[in-house]
Amino acid sequence: MFALGPWRRAPVPGAGIRATITVMADASEATYDELTTQDEVEAIMREGGGAVIIDFWSETCGPCRAMAGDFAHVAQQFERDEVRFCKVNTGTHGHLAAPFKVRSIPTLLYIHDGRILDATVGRVNARQLGEKAEWLLKKSRRKPGLLSRLFG
């Protein structure tokens, strides 16, 4: 399981003393990949690519920015596991979202061996993302039996 935190309270610049937002204290240590080319996306979607979570986001999207700290924190919690965390900035690389038919952001895709197993549209918190990462990790560690090889 993963741990939530460490968190700290930070003042919002220009908003007065009483307004605060919650930010992650160590987000700079996050371990995720920023996908910027079609080749990088195709490599993830190849069969045998393992477990991957892709966050389609934009700098102009409020929920995307609010979720960024949670995404970075969960990515850090799973850095030694077999789940790869990636982000695609749709503001600068929107063409990478088109093949996945991403219509709204944030959108998270949960991929195993080149197959999209699930998707989440809208903001998720660290607990929800951690649970999805655990679920994906279990899928990647499970040895495929005859039925799963035949029917997925």
What's this model, at a glance?
The chain has helices spanning 38-45, 62-77, 90-93, 126-141, 146-151, and strands spanning 7-11, 20-24, 33-34, 51-57, 83-89, 107-112, 115-121. With 152 residues, the chain is of the alpha/beta class.
How does this model look, in words?
The protein is an alpha/beta fold and 152 residues long. The protein has a single domain (27-141), classed as Glutaredoxin (3-Layer(aba) Sandwich), CATH 3.40.30.10. 33% of the residues lie in helices and 26% in strands. It has helices spanning 38-45, 62-77, 90-93, 126-141, 146-151, and strands at residues 7-11, 20-24, 33-34, 51-57, 83-89, 107-112, 115-121. The longest helix has 16 residues, at 62-77. It is globular and about 40 Å long. The protein starts with 6 loop residues before the first strand and ends with a helix. Mean pLDDT is 81; it is low at 1-27.
What's the structural blueprint in terms of helices and strands?
Blueprint: E1 7-11, E2 20-24, E3 33-34, H1 38-45, E4 51-57, H2 62-77, E5 83-89, H3 90-93, E6 107-112, E7 115-121, H4 126-141, H5 146-151
Parallel strand pairs: 3-5, 4-5
Antiparallel strand pairs: 1-2, 4-6, 6-7
Helix pairs in contact: 2-4
